[in-house]
From TrEMBL:
Keyword match Transcription regulation: yes
Domain Response regulatory: 8-121
Domain of life: Bacteria
Protein name, entry field: Response regulator
PANTHER family hit by this protein: DNA-BINDING DUAL TRANSCRIPTIONAL REGULATOR OMPR, REGULATOR OF RPOS
4-aspartylphosphate carried by residues: 57
Organism: Paracoccus fontiphilus
Length: 239
């Protein structure tokens, strides 16, 4: 039953035949709902505040769902579930790398979507990375999580994607310790391991290239066979 304290879910989809029935179904399941036909409408609703979760279609006219997802994850704590007709692994990985918490392919089961919404709402608040971690140095790099940026000792700046930024933050939080792929996936806010079965490996590979650690064997982000990954070296807070 809905009340003023029920989670508010924003549904963003340019297809009315999906947007309106989904909004109605969520309302019957006890959620408060708002709908938007495009990213511009969604941004207006989000600016009003109070949204607890956004369901965003990737393919929309104008600003894409991926762009809107990136905006949300960089400027707010609102979790995102992406909708897409694309079921390829690379598409799911791309969604995670833009900061999505889950990825659902069309056509989808409304009841499965409800289960995923509830799972994300249970999980995300405890898993949100905190910008309060501040800037940290490892090796010749300084990581600024609030700007998704790496700066080396020469002053060269390296931009990170949302997924790379979160993954690096997780490594710095657990420096010297082996972190399993499943745990890294959680810390990157991915909801379903099956949906992102190679997401961690792909993001690690890109991150290694950006820090010049793509020689074999890697020396900074070390692969622990059967276990996961480990960041080697000391981590220091930068004032």
């Amino acid at each position: 039953m809905r009340d003023a304290y029920s989670p508010l879910v924003l549904v963003v989809d340019d297809a009315r035949e999906i947007r309106d029935p989904l909004g109605s179904f969520l309302s019957r399941q006890g959620f408060r709902t708002r709908t938007a036909a495009n990213a511009a409408e969604a941004r207006q609703i989000l600016a009003e505040g109070g949204v607890n979760l956004a369901i965003i279609d990737i393919m929309m006219p104008g600003e894409s769902g991926l762009s809107l997802c990136t905006h949300l994850t960089q400027t707010s704590r609102v979790p995102v579930i992406l909708l897409s007709a694309c079921a390829e692994e690379t598409d799911r990985i791309r969604g995670l790398d833009h900061g999505a918490d889950d990825y659902v392919t069309k056509p989808f089961s409304p009841r499965e979507l409800i289960a995923r919404i509830r799972a994300v709402l249970r999980r995300v608040p405890a898993e949100q990375p905190s910008p309060a971690a501040g800037r940290r140095r490892f090796g010749r790099f300084v990581h600024d999580p609030t700007r998704s940026l790496l700066t080396d000792d020469s002053g060269q700046e390296i931009e990170l994607t949302t997924g790379e930024n979160r993954l690096l933050g997780a490594f710095l939080d657990h420096a010297g310790r082996t972190v399993s792929r499943a745990r890294l996936l959680e810390l990157m806010r991915g909801r379903s391991p099956r949906a992102y079965d190679r997401a961690v490996d792909n993001t690690v590979s890109r991150l290694r290239r950006k820090i010049g650690d793509d020689a074999k064997p890697a020396r900074v982000i070390v692969t622990e066979w059967g276990g996961g990954y480990r960041l080697v070296g000391t981590v220091e807070t930068v004032a």
